[in-house]
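Severity: low
Component: inverse-folding endpoint
Summary: output formatting inconsistent between runs
Steps to reproduce: submit the following structure tokens with default settings.
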């Protein structure tokens, strides 16, 4: 609690210094991808690919268990970093995109075409935020809000990609 209390006292701008100040900030900023000067959400989403590659050697149930655990870790780390920044869902916080992208990749065949479709579909729903994603984004705050709207974007992406797999 002492560490969390110290992080809550100072409001800061996203920076490499803040990223290095605490391991939770490092995760929240997607190992630095969230500090990209352009499109940090899109750059952070790309980190979902190496995360998926780490998970893909596991049996499917363990891949999903890993995603759930990383989601729960994300609630904590995004909450702590959001407090430090003074903004619940700052654009530099991208751990939600990382975990959501890895989850979408679990559901598609192992091919570059499907991985590209997964990336485009997830980014579309994450940026567009159709209902209920927009509602969650506006009404659920803190770490849970940060993680949940991207989980819903991933779910919609998975539904579209599953339909596409049945058609092709």
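Observed output (run 2 of 3):
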């Amino acid at each position: 609690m002492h560490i969390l209390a110290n992080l809550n006292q100072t409001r800061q701008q996203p920076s490499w210094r803040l990223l290095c100040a605490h391991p939770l900030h490092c995760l929240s900023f997607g190992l630095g991808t969230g500090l990209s000067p352009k499109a940090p959400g899109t750059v952070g989403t790309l980190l979902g690919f190496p995360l998926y590659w780490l998970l893909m050697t596991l049996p499917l149930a363990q891949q999903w268990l890993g995603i759930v655990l990383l989601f729960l870790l994300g609630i904590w780390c995004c909450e702590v970093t959001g407090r430090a920044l003074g903004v619940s869902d700052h654009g530099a916080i991208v751990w939600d995109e990382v975990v959501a992208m890895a989850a979408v990749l679990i559901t598609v065949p192992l091919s570059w075409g499907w991985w590209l479709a997964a990336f485009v579909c997830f980014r579309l729903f994450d940026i567009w935020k159709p209902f209920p994603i927009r509602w969650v984004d506006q009404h659920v705050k803190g770490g849970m809000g940060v993680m949940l709207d991207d989980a819903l974007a991933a779910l919609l992406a998975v539904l579209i990609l599953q339909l596409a797999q049945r058609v092709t």
